[in-house]
Target: TonB-dependent receptor
Amino acid sequence: MTVFSADRRLRAPLHVSATSIAALVAVLAFSPAAAQTAPSAPPPAPVQDAPVTVDQSQTTAPDQQVSSDIIVTGSRITSSGFNAPTPTTMVSSEDLQQVAAPNIFNAITILPSLQGSTGAATGTFSTSSGQQGLSSFSLRGLGALRTLTLLDGQRVVGANVTGVPDISMFPQLLVTRVDVVNGGASASYGSDAVGGVVNFITDTRFVGFKANGQLGITTYGDDKQAQFQAAWGTALLDDRLHVILSGEFDHQGGVGAGDFGTDLAGSRDWYRATTLVNTGQTNNGRPQFLYRDFAQPYQYARYGLINNGPLQGIAFDQNGQPFNFNYGSGGVPNGAGGVTGCFPGNSFCVGGDLSGAPGSGASLKSALERINGFGRIGFDFAQDNEVYFTVNVAQVTTNNQPSPGYNRASLTVQCANPYLPQLVRDRCATANITSFGFGSSNANFPDPHVYTDRRQYRFVGGLKGKFDVGGSAWRYDAYYQHGITISDINVEDIVLQNRYVAATNAITLNGAIVCADAAARAAGCQPINIFGGTPPSSAALAYVTPENGPFQHTKLTQDVASVNFSGEPLNLWAGPLSVAFGGEYRHEYYRVNADPYGAGVSAISPNGPDYPADPLLNSAQGSNWAAGNYKNGTGSYNVYEGYLELDVPLFKGDGIGRANLNGAARVTHYSTSGTVWTWKLGGTWDTPLDGFRLRAVTSRDVRAPNLSELFAAPTVTTLPNFNDPFRNVAVQAFQNTVGNPNLKPESARNTEIGVVLSRPSWLPGLSLSFDYYNIELNGVISSLSAQQIVQFCFDGNQAFCGGFELNSPQQGGNFINVQPFNLASWKTSGFDIEASYQWVRPLGLPGSFTVRALGTHVREFLVKAGIAGVDTVDQAGANNGNTPDWKWLAVQTYSNDRFSLTLQQRWFSDGTFGNQYVVCQTGCPASTGNHPTIDFNKMKGAFYFDVGGSVNLTGNVTSFFKVDNVFDHDPAAAPQTNTGLDVNPALYDTLGRTYRVGVRMKF
Model:
């Protein structure tokens, strides 16, 4: 099966046979049972519809291991008597099936502690990010870079240069559970586990055949989904040889672009072009920013607008006929580029002609196809000892439209342009002008599209099992992994800016309309009519938007060699001493190659037909595209580390309960930044009170700079009027945005304290937990502007003086290197609440009824930029970001042997656009960059209601349905200060009501 063959320029796609029929189930019921009791306690009634919060050791999964050792992500300790202090939410395979999502990622991200994750609905508005369709987790709002995602406790090669893996590439049908560790775990697992760890555990002993099939669609008739999965496993040679194969295919049609103005895809009607218009006034007693719907830029229109000079205000319709533009706000053009009655701070008016605004033209969700093949073979060479080999080959392709047309507000048009209507030429003569300013959304141009193709090849070979030393049983796990990701980004229908300008400047020569610039004509320039909706000729489009558009080809590799041991060498006064230790080597590498128009070469392929030399283009520095100027780069680093973890039983008795102390330390050496230590110290106490447990942990965690931050492919930006404070003159300089190989790891202090009530004898169906967390992150990697770097040096900070030159005698010799530094610091705190109650045989009915709730409250999320004069901002409750004050998930489920029915509620609280604003109407203080004034600063939260159910058709076949966002709740506006789509898809549902049905089978 060929994935995304529509993009003819992508590299050869994977070909995998997708044999499957049946389906993921429909009901979500997360079980946040706070923490289980000791192994000797009676087991609870079976629950198959909810994630369970466990104490790192109390969930057995014998089908995933050689033996029945308990392995839960938050710790390397594997003793059954160990209760780790870090709260962990476990999501079982049954839970994942009941969510009925086309991607496991969607099933996990609804947990309240996951904030700011990325997926197919995020990143669709940009061209150059390269993260479209990338499914990655973010815990505690700290970003995907600070959440460590593992597969069977092993690292996975990144899907782009940030090192973040793509969850949709995992073998999803074989996942038996997902452990979500809500807290730092760097001492146990290494770098990046600042916010926590998400670990996918697969079934390595699966025997039989199972298959899923699922279809879905939104109430607007788009994002059509089709998913097929199948897995087969067998045991041979007296159950010593295990072979497993799985294959998956998933198609998600996405939600395409709308049109200019306010027309979204389908019949969605919630877009209002909401904008924070800037009055430009900062000290007149009135707010600087005004919250307004139906705002539009006054510098361009759908088919062209004269935006400067005596003719300002003349626009052109689709037929190229001039008319007087309706600015809104009672706006009257002043002939100098401004509009009286509108808002000069960001060149916006309110109301009037919205037809040229591009915000609604971006895709709401990327179209996505993924295909995954997985195989594993394991052989028990001795009892409880296995040698194994796995291979995972996956491809994810996406496409989206970032915005329609091509917005250009700074053209100079000659009155002699032969395409210009005679009426306007006559007006030029009357006004005694030969040219005027012009802006257009170029709605007659093809809409740009971004195509991504990520292919991953992952190979793992390893040994795991048990051995005895002096009568003590030890466990080991050693593996080597080699991972490769090949990522291609192709952008179609993006213009070369200088060619576009040349093509718009037309003259009549020898009776023919041609480009005015003779050098451009010699290089193939074809004229374009920018007045009205006449599409450019194919020759003109080929010149302005050549077929070989922006592209980026990236190769990432990751090699990991790891060995881990754990055992119980001593019996102490209150139980065995548990020990885990090990070491790991890791090598990370990337190389990226881009097209010469974007990346730049000494001459743009003067000897090649695809990139002919062109005097209009910057051949040395590139950056010729309107968007998508990718660059070349490469880099690598090595990591060596070792760790030791101990669990010491403190006491045990009927009158005092049972307590343990857990500690770990890890030393890590990075070839780029040196050596760093991480550690954790915590403990749990099962008190004498029935079912009552206390837990606490504090840790030092780190995130090492990734390949992109260390070795970013450089980008070049021209600064024509850069202020040189040393000479107090304006100079032309080039801003070189580069990586910084001298970056140090970010460091965090993570503290958690929790209280758990778990299935007391007086109410055995009840579980409750409360966990407070506090995270302080220092040395956060962030960047300064070019002007800030030079100013800091001028002010006497020598650390910033080596990266620029502003007095070069050579043409083009002035430059400022902009790179990331360990500048910022973050602090966040809050608490998690989890509760569940299970009622077996409610009112005498067969089956069980379960109610559950998970909630996260973010008390504060303080961001300190680390830059003089920039105030700390609290982002908690800023719903334009990722950290609402409150976020809840509640589930009610009834299930028996024949069917199940689930009701689910997802809610987060009202918030603000940003907590830096000062709200006022009159008598406002002076508006500053740190605290701008605004007339309105409230952003509604959201409540989503979902319903699902399943029916067991036979003992092996189950059908299901699921409806998400039953009431089709629209997202709140996330106002911009530009022309973007005013929505926050990382927090709000932008698709609307979604239906899914399917069937699954297992034999």
User: Anything to note?
Assistant: Residues 1-68 have pLDDT under 50 and may be disordered. The first strand starts at residue 52 and ends at 54. The CA atoms of residues 82 and 259 lie 59 Å apart.
